[in-house]
Amino acid sequence: MRSLLAVKLGCLLGLLLLPLVCGLLPVRLRGAGTRGRWRSFVGCVAGGIFLAACLLDIVPDSLSDMREELRSQRITVDFPFPEFVLTLGFLLVLIIEHVVLDCSEQRAGEATPLLSCGEGTPQPAGTGEWVVETGAPHLPADFRAHSSFRSFVLFLSLSVHSLFEGLAVGLQDTESKVLQICIAILVHKSVIAVSLSLLLLQSQVPTRWFVALIGTFALMSPLGITVGIVMMQNPGPSSTMAQCLLEGIAAGTFVYITFLEILPHELSSPTCRLPKVLSMLLGFSVMAALRFLG
Question: What is the pTM of this model?
Answer without folding.
Answer: 0.63
